[in-house]
Amino acid sequence: MPVTLRLASPFGITLLGSLVALSAFFLGGHLIAFVGLIVLLLIMRQSLLLILVAGTAFIHVFFARNSSVEYLVQDIWFTLDREVLLAIPMFILAGSVMARGSVARYLVDVMTNIAGPLPGGLAVACIMACAIFAAISGSSIVTLLAIGTIAFPALTNNGYSRRFAIGLICAAGTLGIMIPPSIAMILYGIMTETSITALFTAGVMPGLLLVVMLAAYSVIMNWRVPRRKFRLGETLIAIRKGIPALLMPVILLGGIYSGWFSPTEAAAVALVYAVLVELLIYRDMKVADYVSVIKESVVLLGRLLPLVAIASSLNTIMDYEGITEAWVIAIGEAVENPVLLMISVNILLLLVGCMMEVSSAMVVLSPLLEPIMTRAGFDPVHFGIVMTANLEIGYLTPPVGLNIMVAMVAFREQFTGVVKAVMPFVFLMLVWLMLLSFVPGIALFFAS
Q1: How far apart are the C-alpha atoms of 427 and 343, rounded to whole Å?
Q2: Average pLDDT, stretch 209-222?
Q3: Which of 111, 215, 401, 425 stands 20 to 30 A from 12 (CA)?
Q4: pLDDT tens, 31-68?
Q5: DSSP string, 166-177
Q6: pLDDT tens, residue by residue, 127-185
Q7: Long-range CB contacts (< 8 A, 24+ apart) of 250-257?
Q8: What is the maximum alpha-carbon separation in the chain?
């Protein structure tokens, strides 16, 4: 019987790859012992989490300087004992409630009635719905699933190619980490001591610019696709039913920018508002649905948070041993020209985005890169947006693009098929990244 291993998540695959790469640095000639441990655990069909814990503990005990298993336990505790992590379960739960209920469906209905008469109107509606939902959930994956599962059959049933529909939904789903509130921006603000509110403000224009670019591309590519006729009565009904859903981003962003609540508190507001809207207004969810949503969210967090904790321990080892710092500082010393430095850092971040989960990359690299970029004359808020944009593209780049992995399951498509679908949108987003990098006024338009 062949040996199989069910990986917990794409994030877990990333960590396993990072663990092997890190072990090569530490172990040198003893790499065989480490690989043997991993192979043995695979043969025993142990869980991915156990393999990661065992591998990380192996490095702590035998190869990291002045370290032990006790430090691994401390790393896990310090990682999970952070207030900012409270936003993650609440945003996930709020997004799950809205995806299971009617918020996502009413958002799609409103945008479809408004943008439907345009060339490529359904695609434009999908992008606009993702943008609004991103401002509610703060999560790329939740946005992709909530809007994508509704928009995908609508697109394919109305003349849009399957490949275009998959690529569009994957790309529009990435708006979840650029349009505020954004977990990635919260992490950048904490690690670099940059104002999170300023980062949220700076993310508005880049997010809107990407919406416009995706919409323009969709119109050009689907000019001949049959359009939906505009019906004023249906549009007004859709808007009336969608008002509670449309008000949520206004409440969240308005509350953050006015100082009524912090970005972390915004996650709690989003959850309470989502439950109240579904419970008192739309009333499409039953008690059993709420129980199911809570269970699903708890299971997701139970898989995610331990992996985040182990990732933090690996990042701590890399930081303590000076691996990442030496790598980044070498770039800063080798490249003195600010333009070449920005290009070099973009290339670095794009490569990191291909292999590393966004939160881990932000935690490890932002405190190292931000001082270098600031000394080169770049605004820390501007660079925070550029870094977020780079890692956002990482959601679409193989081998470990999270949106690629999610789309494979959600749309029952092969890995190569999803990669081919997202490539035109990756190139489009690279143009967007260059604009953000060298036209700082886009990010600082509202933040200045």
Answers
A1: 16
A2: 93
A3: 425
A4: 667 677 777 777 777 666 677 777 777 777 766 666 66
A5: HHHHHHHHGGGG
A6: 988 888 877 766 677 778 778 878 888 888 888 899 999 999 999 988 888 888 787 88
A7: 252/135, 252/136, 252/181, 253/135, 253/180, 253/181, 253/200, 256/180, 256/181, 256/197, 256/200, 257/197, 257/200, 257/201
A8: 73
